[in-house]
Amino acid sequence: MKRSQLFIISLVALGLSGCDQSSKAFSLPPGDMAQGEQVFMDMQCLSCHILDGYERPEGEWELSVALGGKGKSLKTYGELVTSVINPSHKLAKGHDMSSIQVDGKSVMPVYNDVMTVSELVDLVTFLESKYELEPYDPTIYNLHH
Length: 145
Ligand code: HEC
Description:
Elements: H1 3-17, H2 33-42, E1 49-50, E2 65-66, H3 77-85, H4 97-100, E3 101-102, E4 105-106, H5 117-128
Parallel strand pairs: 1-2
Antiparallel strand pairs: 3-4
Domain Cytochrome c: 31-131
Organism: Oceanisphaera sediminis
Protein name: Cytochrome c domain-containing protein
């Protein structure tokens, strides 16, 4: 067999295995929704966020960034995860910029040093249930270039 034929066969094989893109998309393992709700309460996310069905703690809150629902700034699972572990990556749309960021950095705390991966998994499972997100749309690389 010529090398060029081998090359074509391997391209086809790659193309076929690429059919199941969902297995390549980034996603955390399934978590526990009730535990996630607990993390959400314990970490006091409600001090800056509003979420349907959850009462905010006593006090005066300067921030009321809405979470959940459809058609808000978050569209995909990937964006949801990113907004928790890297809040400044993309700032939520539709807010007064002066209240949600300082020097381009989100005022949302970074929890990465205090939140375990299991807590993150549970939290994201909980949050995901509050959104209508589009399925993850993985990048498909064009093998012919
Ligand atoms: C000190 C205030 C503050 C706290 C506490 C806070 N956040 Fe945020 N959060 C923000 C602000 C401000 C934004 C909007 C700017 C941005 O996108 O980072 C935001 C954005 C988000 C977004 C993206 C919303 C969107 O529509 O793009 C998610 C999801 C989120 N926070 C989840 C959480 C969770 C979960 C917690 C608790 C673990 C939490 N936040 C705690 C201030 C906070």
